[in-house]
Specification:
The protein is mainly α. Helix content is 86%, strand content 0%. It has helices at residues 3-17, 21-29, 31-55, 58-61, 66-99, 105-146, 158-203.
Length: 204
């Protein structure tokens, strides 16, 4: 390869990395939905942290029977561990978003896929909390049924069993649907706007 070939190769490589003004404007237009995702995630982290702390005071606020306090805090400790694991991951995601500057196609692609990945992480977080909600509901229903005269643990009536199964099933389905709506409303629709910018760049 002579000098002219080397120069042509160098020029071609530089041309591939040049971003035309029109493309640059399109890439920068993705900053608006990205800012909304940052804002929503910041609020989410704050509200989730406060909610976890508030749940820890529920036995004091609602005068739990003494026999329920130890089991409650046993499950609460596991609940906190799960929350901390996911909230820390979401916090690092938030920190990455704050450092992102959308100036190239590569940065736009990377940001979009990072957002999609963490949307799935958020859904996993929600599903990981579902068993705790179910256990709380079962405990609540058991406490309610146990107040009936002559109630025995192995003496559930058919109507009581049906009530428990109905509440558990409905709760799981409701949480799944609510979670899908929540992620789409606060993150998904903005990720879709970024994807539209990516699709426009592909067409050119």
């Amino acid at each position: 390869m002579d000098f002219k070939d080397i120069q042509n190769a160098w020029n071609n490589e530089k041309a591939e990395n040049i971003i035309l003004p029109d493309n640059l404007e399109k890439i920068k237009s993705a900053n608006t939905p990205l800012d909304k995702i940052r804002k929503n995630l910041k609020k989410e982290l704050l509200y989730q942290s406060v909610s976890v702390a508030f749940i820890g005071f529920i036995p004091c606020l609602y005068a739990f029977p003494e026999k329920w306090i130890a089991p409650f805090y046993l499950f609460f400790s596991i609940f906190v561990a799960v929350c901390v694991y996911y909230l820390v991951k979401l916090y690092f995601f938030y920190k990455r978003l704050n450092k992102i500057t959308l100036s190239t196609k590569d940065s736009l692609y990377e940001t979009y896929f990072d957002i999609r990945l963490n949307m799935e992480l958020y859904k996993t977080f929600g599903f990981a909390l579902t068993p705790f909600v179910i256990l709380f509901l079962i405990g609540f229903l058991y406490d309610k049924f146990s107040k009936q005269p002559g109630f025995q643990l192995n003496d559930f009536s058919n109507s009581q069993l049906i009530s428990v199964f109905t509440v558990v099933t409905f709760s799981i389905l409701s949480m799944g649907l609510a979670l899908e709506w929540w992620v789409h409303h606060f993150y998904g629709k903005y990720a879709k706007e970024i994807k539209m910018v990516i699709d426009q760049l592909k067409e050119e």
